[in-house]
Specification:
single chain; about 280 residues; mainly alpha; two-stranded antiparallel ribbon; 9 helices; 2 strands; about 45% helix
């Protein structure tokens, strides 16, 4: 049947823009999301928490002062690998690089624990969503037209996570040594316990719990085993680490807060804001 002059044939709808969540094979939904809850609260809180830590740790790392108040040393500055460190009696003064390093000694050591955290599976999820909106939340479309995963520079460097895990282990060991030294008083006499000692004990417990709950640690202990029955010790360790791994997100945040608080506590003591309360 012929159409009249006043009628127009049906025209197909324009094709959706290509790329991203609107590419071929994806559901044809024009809305960015269909969620009715406050989905933006979690990425906003994550962004705020990580941003505050980055600002604080950057300030303290470049400050190069107020990081030692006998017997406590800031975890940001331990171990010291340069000559320009405060002399910490029996402390982690290794002086491996000599006198040529003129910047803050914290910059030499923080790359290892920070690299471990930046490449951590949980932190990757956290800052991908909070900073890059990739995606900002579950069931919320991301604004990026293309996504190639972690196959190109710089994200391909995330594959170094297992190596940062190996580097984080000796750092945690040295921080454990610092915690043992915290059982001295300001005159280096043993048998003392102050509020700072408790701060350091909580901090090192959380650091070890976070480090051992890492996915790389779990794979190192139980990976590539075909028969757990033939390796009962590794199996028990794998189960234990697996239980820690279930709380990896909580341990990531708790240890991040504790290490910043331990540094801030030493800063307050070093600046004379107050004296360390003695418990015995």
């Amino acid at each position: 049947m012929a159409t009249s002059a006043t009628e127009t044939p049906d025209t197909p709808p324009p094709p959706p823009p290509s790329g991203g969540v609107t590419s071929a094979g994806r559901a044809s939904i024009s809305a960015r999301h269909l969620r009715t809850d406050r989905w933006w609260l979690q990425p906003a809180a994550t962004f705020t928490g990580l941003f505050l830590f980055v600002v604080y740790s950057t300030w303290r790392a470049f400050a190069d002062t107020d990081y030692y108040a006998a017997p406590y040393v800031s975890p940001f500055y331990s171990p010291c690998l340069a000559e320009n460190c405060r002399d910490m009696r029996s402390g982690p003064n290794f002086d491996l690089l000599g006198s040529w390093w003129g910047l803050s000694p914290a910059l030499l050591i923080l790359i290892f624990p920070l690299g471990f955290r930046l490449t951590c599976y949980y932190y990757r999820k956290a800052y991908y969503r909070a900073f890059w909106a990739s995606p900002p939340a579950c069931a919320v479309s991301e604004p990026h037209q293309k996504y190639s995963g972690e196959t190109r520079f710089p994200l391909i460097l995330q594959n170094m996570h297992r190596y940062f895990f190996y580097a984080a282990l000796p750092v945690a060991g040295i921080l454990t040594y610092d915690t043992v030294l915290a059982f001295r008083d300001e005159n280096y006499a043993w048998g003392h316990m102050g509020l700072g000692t408790l701060v350091f004990l909580v901090n090192i417990a959380l650091i070890w719990a976070y480090t051992l709950s890492c996915h790389s640690c779990r794979h190192l202990i139980g990976g590539r085993l075909r028969h757990f029955s033939k390796h009962p010790v590794r199996y028990r360790m794998w189960v234990w680490v697996g239980k820690l791994n279930e709380r990896h997100m909580f341990l990531a945040w708790a240890s991040l807060i504790s290490v910043a608080f331990a540094d801030f506590y030493v800063y307050l003591l070093a600046t004379g804001a107050f004296d360390d309360p003695s418990l015995f």
